[in-house]
Amino acid sequence: MRWFSPLAWRDLVHPYTDDHAVPLMVCAALCVMLVVVAGALYAQREYADGYLPDRSTNRRRWRVHGYTDLLARLALRGGAIWAATVVATSALFGAMTGGIVELLAPGSATGSYVRKMAEGSQVEQYLSLLTIITALLVAVAAAQRVHTLVLENRAGLIELKTAIGISRTRLLMTQGGMALVEATGLLVLSGGVLAAATASQLTEDHAVERAFVFTVSQLPGLLATIGIALAVAGVAPRRFGIVWAVIAWSVFTRFFGGLLELPQWARDLSVLGHHLDAVGDPDWVPLAVQAVIGVVGSAVGLAAYQRRDLPGI
Hints:
single chain, 313 residues, mainly alpha, globular
């Protein structure tokens, strides 16, 4: 399957050992072919049109019951795409747990690196890192949902919505509520699929329970992400890049903080990776802090959104 991923072609080349040139030749040939095909298609199509039919509108008449119902219908397609992505990723990661004991065995090169990135047994290390990736997908989906409010602000649609009687409070809180509902559903779906796939490969060291709990208990981190996104959308919508920077920092600290020997407090400044364990005494403090950040961020965003000019930046 490495042939189907450009990122995996490096393994096929075996640099500094076998130095196979065939994968590089295939890569170069595909690049040239794609450029030629793209140029031919671009030269032949109508300006500002496309070869595929436009699916942005629907001729069927919807019986919409309120603003929330409309947003839910518009978000259905995007939510389905995110759900399929999360299911596929979780199923793949769960199917990989069969060789975890050998891969992370004491004394192995991979195990020495992973121990700097995560703590605990091999099962804990493996599942904690994998659930960060699945939680990352959900965090991006939630932030993107709030970002829709920013895009509508730039397009002038917010003024039209308020002109028909929808309050600013309802605009912001409905978008934030939908982001939270979608994130919760995706997180539970991811945890269930990961636990089911793990059960078919590995059951020792409470692997199945940890697969589900490690995933679902990261919900406060997603709440913090949504709160930060709402705060930025309310205070300075043009600075929404701050939200993506927070997510990027969270990924960096979780995967590279231990390798770079960053201080523990710097690694803890993350909206990802804080979870409960299905075994032992749970540590609720990080999750409580994240929940407070989410609530405070939402309150700040709402207060600013109610007072600033609608086209304001």
